[in-house]
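Design job #97: recover the sequence.
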């Protein structure tokens, strides 16, 4: 009897154990199936949305149905509706952007897309809110900062736009000219530009000055130079700005700047009271800017300062032609302020050695930003010891400056390739006495 009881109890325990094992097996199977479903759901979603660069709307829709919690698929659907070439639909874009933000409200790019769609739908207040949210969430994104700046600029909210563009210039300094161009185009005042937009730093003021000079914005250039001067500009800065003023015909301002340049860098030229040329003896370094000489460049031509051969002092300007080309070149050229309708005399010395062709070295005076006129000397060729050359000319009415050149004109003859050497020294230009 006891044996029977023991067998029965053992049987009951085995039955309970079996029941528990079946339960856990079923539970494990259910969990495994759920995990598999979750994995397959994500895998199918990724499969449908693979290669997002192609932006297949149908496949992205399938992906959003499979993984509705993924915000990026709704963003892409909104983007597709906004950018559709055939029939863009900002209202549908807004719907999907909002669904994306419901799942991830911290994505600045989605807020930016929403702002665009609101803007194009005429919902300006909503667009402004969205664009501000975008900038707040992604402060260091230059693309968002640029777009926000453009948005506020178009809304004539210049204060917000300038603040954003100033930040953008720090983030993308290589693109600052586009900012300046856009702001000028949309009516931002030059005073606002230089005071509030351009960052207070030498490198930014320099780029801004180059921008306004390249666009011939004379008034804005004066403001830019005033700010740049606070950072002790270098020689090249002075020369570039002086060249700009000369090209614009602002001779008084350019002369004032040239005098400042001389004092700032302790440069002084030996010349008489009535002497008008700068560095006519070529004993100072040629600056290639401002009211100094600008030397030319051409194949087969070498231009340099020669301290071994000179008429007076310790240097002359020398040019060597290698005989392989037919250049038309200003060996050196200088702009000289003058009075209209006055007579002047240009004098200098030339030495030559084996200068070939009929087109040798000449002196020339020509108009600069005034009624055209040209006066030039006969060409010097062959071999000559130091030879004095004189040229008298009268400036046209309203002429404020002339260009003085040392030149070789291109030849149209068969035998036109020039070779040889020439030296120029002791150039002088003074008012002519009758």
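Job complete. Output follows.
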């Amino acid at each position: 009897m006891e044996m029977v009881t023991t067998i029965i109890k053992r049987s009951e325990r085995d039955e309970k154990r079996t029941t528990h094992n079946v339960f856990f097996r079923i539970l494990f199977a259910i969990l495994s199936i759920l995990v598999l479903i979750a994995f397959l759901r994500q895998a199918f979603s990724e499969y449908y949305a693979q290669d997002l660069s192609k932006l297949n709307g149908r496949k992205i829709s399938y992906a959003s149905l499979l993984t509705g919690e993924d915000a990026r698929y709704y963003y892409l659907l909104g983007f597709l509706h906004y950018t559709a070439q055939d029939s863009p639909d900002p209202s549908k874009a807004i719907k999907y952007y909002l669904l994306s933000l419901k799942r991830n409200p911290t994505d600045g790019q989605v807020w930016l897309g929403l702002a665009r769609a609101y803007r194009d739908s005429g919902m300006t207040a909503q667009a402004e809110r969205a664009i501000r949210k975008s900038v707040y969430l992604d402060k260091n994104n230059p693309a968002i900062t640029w777009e926000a700046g453009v948005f506020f600029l178009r809304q004539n909210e210049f204060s917000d736009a300038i603040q954003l563009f100033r930040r953008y210039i720090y983030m993308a300094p290589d693109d600052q000219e586009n900012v300046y161009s856009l702001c000028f185009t949309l009516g931002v005042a030059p005073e606002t530009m230089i005071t509030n937009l351009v960052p207070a730093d030498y490198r930014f003021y320099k780029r801004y000055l180059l921008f306004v000079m390249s666009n011939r914005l004379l008034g804005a250039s004066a403001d830019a130079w005033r700010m740049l001067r606070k950072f002790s500009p270098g020689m090249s800065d002075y020369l570039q700005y002086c060249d700009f003023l000369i090209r614009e015909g602002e001779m008084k301002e350019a002369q004032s700047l040239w005098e400042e340049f001389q004092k700032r860098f302790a440069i002084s030229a030996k010349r008489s009271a009535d002497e008008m040329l700068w560095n006519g003896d070529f004993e100072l370094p040629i600056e290639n800017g401002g009211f100094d000489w600008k030397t030319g460049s051409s194949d087969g031509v070498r231009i340099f300062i020669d301290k071994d051969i000179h008429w007076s002092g310790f240097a002359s300007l020398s040019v060597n032609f290698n005989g392989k080309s037919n250049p038309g070149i200003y060996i050196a050229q200088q702009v000289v302020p003058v009075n209209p309708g006055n007579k002047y005399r240009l004098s200098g010395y030339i030495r030559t050695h084996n200068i070939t062709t009929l087109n040798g070295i000449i002196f020339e005076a020509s108009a600069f930003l005034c009624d055209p006129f040209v006066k030039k000397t006969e060409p010097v060729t062959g071999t000559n010891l130091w030879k004095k050359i004189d040229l008298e000319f009268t400036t046209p009415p309203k002429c404020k400056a002339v260009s003085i050149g040392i030149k070789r004109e291109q030849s149209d003859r068969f035998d036109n390739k020039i070779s040889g050497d020439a030296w120029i020294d002791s150039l002088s230009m003074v008012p002519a006495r009758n």
